[in-house]
Specification:
The chain is mostly beta strands and 191 residues long.
């Protein structure tokens, strides 16, 4: 583990949606050696107290594709490990204060357009690959380690708006302890 925190987590696409945290005390830590790596890859560890990294405002359509409102499609993938069995926010695009989520993933469920899908049990110290794939007005799938956990969306909906993309918390609250190796978001239904 490096003693320094993560100031910048670079987007590996042409979108340049880079995540930053200028405040040293709130920076997650990179794990690039030993048992804290995930599948021999570095991970970013969030302490569950105040660690969070985020972008400035991101155009909502770069993360979801809209049909006739609210007919939004998106596909998300995350590889992470939780040091405990407590549910928590892994990432989200929101106002950071608990309002409308355009997209997001918790340890137990995911969401697109403020519609939740999933009810997974959170296990501690297990590497998880979670995904959400689908369209909120038709088919959807929340998968945990290759198994379908849920296919029905909740009835809560809204209209996606441009907001920051947060990792490790729901903005300035709901911090979660986790080690994240990778997050991939496609603005389309890959099913």
């Amino acid at each position: 583990t490096l003693a320094t925190g993560v100031l910048l987590w670079k987007d590996q696409t042409h979108n340049a949606i880079n995540l930053t945290q200028p405040t040293a005390a709130k920076q997650p830590v990179i794990n690039n050696t030993g048992a804290l790596m995930i599948n021999f890859n570095p991970s970013i560890a969030f302490d569950g107290t105040d660690d969070v990294i985020n972008t400035s405002s991101v155009i909502s359509t770069s993360l979801t594709i809209g049909g006739s409102s609210p007919n939004y499609s998106s596909s998300h993938f995350i590889v992470y490990r939780s040091p405990n069995s407590t549910d928590g926010v892994l990432y989200n695009q929101s106002n950071g204060a608990g309002g409308m989520w355009n997209i997001g993933m918790m340890k137990s469920k995911g969401l697109v357009d403020n519609r939740f899908i999933g009810s997974a049990t959170v296990s501690s110290n297990v590497v998880n690959l979670q995904s959400i794939i689908g369209n909120v007005n038709s088919t959807g799938s929340f998968n945990v380690n290759g198994s379908v956990n849920a296919t029905s969306w909740s009835s809560i909906a809204g209209t996606p708006v441009n907001n920051s993309f947060w990792v490790g918390a729901q903005g300035t609250n709901a911090f979660t302890a986790s080690q994240i190796a990778e997050i991939i978001v496609y603005p389309s239904d890959l099913s």
